[in-house]
Structures are given as C-alpha cells and as structure tokens.
Amino acid sequence: MTSTSEQPLMVARAADAAEEPNPYLLGVYAPVGTEIDAEDLQVIGEIPKDLNGVYLRNGPNPRFAPEGRYHWFDGDGMIHAVHLENGKARYRNRWVRTKAFEAESAAGKALWTGVMENPKGNPFGNAHGLGLKDNANTDVVFHRGRILATWYLCGSPYAVDPLSLETLGAEDFLGTLVGDMMAHPKVDEATGELFWFDYGPRPPYLRYGVISADGKVVNTTEIELPGPRLPHDMAITERYAVLMDLPLVQDPHAAKLGRHKLHFDRSMPSRFGVLPRYGNGSQIRWFEASPCYIYHVVNAWEQGDEVVLDVCRVQKPAPRPDAHTPLAKMLSYLRLDAQLHRYRFDLRTGACREEALDDANTEFPTVDSRGVGKRNRYSYAVHISPESTLKFDGLVRYDNLAGAKTEYRFGPGRWGSEAPFAPREGAAADSADGHLVTFVQDEREGRSELDIFDAADLAAGPVARVLLPQRVPLGFHATWVRADQLENLRS
Known about the structure:
The protein contains four helices and 34 strands. It is mainly beta. The strands form eight sheets. It has a six-stranded antiparallel sheet. Strands 3, 29, 30, 31, 32 and 33 form a six-stranded antiparallel sheet that branches.
C-alpha cells in the first residue's frame, strides 16, 4: 500500500538555460517531487529474517527550479529509507527541512543560487558567512537515537528521526555546539562519542571537537593552519584523531570576487595531523606525504607505535585541460578517480610511509560501524563507472588479512549507492557475517530497488531485490541502523 504525504511539489527544470542541458538534472539524477510512504513492498527473492533495521540514504533533490547554473551539490537534501523487519519492507522519503528549505517553501520559489554562482544576493549562508545554501544533503550519521544530516561544506547538522524521517531541527547538542560541523563526523559506538571538526575561510581555519555520549560538546580546540583549507573527512583510533591539511585550496582571486572556486596546488604536500582524542591544538603532530586530495576515509587504527590510515586517495582533483565552460569543469571535477591507499604515521620517529593498495577506481567506503577506529579485516566500497557523470556500477569487498578483493557489477544501465555493512543479529564485529544493502536504479526501466547482498558471498549477486514504489535519484551517502539501535530509540 502506498500513501502520499503531501501533494506533488514543484521540481527543478531539466536544463540550465545559460548553457547546454545539465545531466545532473536529467535521467537517473532527475529529482522526484513527491514524499510517499509505502508498505509490503514486492520482493524478488527473500529478505533474510535476521536482517532487521533501516537503510537510509541522503542526496540532492532540488524542490524548485534552480537559479543560475546548477551544481549537483546544490540540491535540497532528501532522505530515502527502507525499513526491514521480519522479512517485510516499507519505504519512506522526506526532504530535510532546513532553514533554507523552509524559507524557499514559504516563498514558493528558489531563493539561493548555487556554488557556481556569486552568492552575494543569497538570503543567508552557513556560520562562516559563505552565503551558500546549507541544504544538509550529504551524509546521514546515527548518533544518540537520531540521524544527523550533514552538508559537504560544513553546516548545521540537522537531526532527523530515523523511522518517521521527521526533521527535528538544527542540532545544537544541548546548546553547546558553537559553529558548524563538517560532512563526516565519526561515531565511536563503544563510547557513544562523536568526533567532528569545523572549518572556514577565516581564522581559526580549523576547530576540532568531541561530543560526549550524553550529547554535550566536552572538548574543542583550534588547529593552526597556514591558510583556509577544504577538508572533507577525518578518522579516529582508540586514542587519537586524525585531521588533514590537503592542497585543495580556495582560489584567492575568485574569493575576492565573491565566488567559491577551488585550486589544487601540487607544490604543497599533503599533511596529516595526529592528536590525542581529547587533546588541544598544541599537541598535534603533523606528517607530510605526496600531494593529493581525500574525500573519504575507510578507517584508522593503532598498530604498535604507528597510526594506520586507509583512505580513497584522489591523485589529481582538478578539471581536465579541455574543460573550458563552468558546466564542463563541474562534470570533470565530479569524475572521481580514487584508489585505496594506506598511510602509516610512526609516532616514535615522526616518519610517514604510504602505499597504494589497489588501482581500481573505488570510493564511498564503509566498514562495520561497530569497528570504527579499530583494526578492520573487511571494508567495502562502490566501483566508479568510466561514464562522463559520477555513477557507481558495482561493489567491492576488500579483505585486509588475505590481501584480496571480491567484486560484483550491477549490470548495464544499473547504478548503485553507498552500501553500508549490516551485520547479522548476534554476529561478531568485523566479520563478513552480514549483508550489504544499497539502492540500485535501473535507467532502462526507470525503476529503483533495494538490493541485499550476502557480504561473505558478494560475487553471487543479491539474495533479495526490494522493488520501490518510486524512482530514487542517484545521490550521496548512506547508513544502516540496526534493530537493536532502533529498540534503544523506542525505549
């Protein structure tokens, strides 16, 4: 049974009037205009009875026709969720009701321009005064019974109920959070703590903080940097946090003109800062490595005197030389070319060693959430298609112990989403005893589904395919919330 929670809403136009049609508003990226609830979804195969919880995925879904040139990162955050319980599945999707979303809803039209335009005329921006629309469209992080919907340029984390998808408001952590939060804060499930940083175009360029299990900011410290940076992710171990100073910087000339433009400076090294979890900026130790950019961390852990960090490393995050128009440059930037890479930071000698672990183009990595900050055997990632826009054409499982990988491709015209690991009930942490869950969109049939894989036998393909009542546009990050976490929420 399907119900529509409100009338169809106005959606974005399919092309940028200033240039050629924008592919990130068309086809598999085209926004959907309705928020619906659906129960007793059709299943091909059988949903495992020991797979109970909810899969949630965030992504850009503009409600109104964009003003000016549209960048994929500009769209309003929309969360799509499938709740699995006792072999049954139900679907729900909702926009994240940010302050900007509510303002545009009241006006009945778009009020903000995007990252490819001058934000001078925008009503308001994030806490750092960038003037860009904070749309909470990037990640979904489960902490203290709530989902935190985050924004890639550092904004307000919006609290969302993981079952109803009701937006509960901008999370200020009992009034203790000052400033913004980056896209990918890290949760230590063993302690209940959340680790985060905040960055901006003016000093202090970077602040690091810890939020306790009872929801209060208990530690913040400023991290000294030589200038403004654009870090996207971080890592934790059992005793340390790892922050990054990477050579993708704000173009100073564009900044003077009020525009947000990035520049990759290959003359600068990549730097990694290791500091105690509850330390201050004076305790950070910097390790230098070859220039690169890192969107996403796989995991980190301690091994003897070393901190080990696995990432998806982008060697050259810059547009192709033949990309001359703003749209062409955006398309070029979004064609990620990332490989699994490892860094070892020796806390005794100060040395840094790095090595490539794979040459496949993989991104959006996940591990068992119970093992974040601890040495992991298994990790998972999506494989990136060579097409001109960013599409995920398969899944990869890495086995650190065996030094092996297993792959699965979705098939022609089928594109996936980030695939978190969902452990079987009672399964030990960091085993392959569980499932991978991901949305798959079939552009030939115009249909979306939730595919469920046995993580120990990925190459065999999905054990179940849950057919969804509407198309789910390609988007960004996802998470799996286990049934035991939901039970704690209900109690």
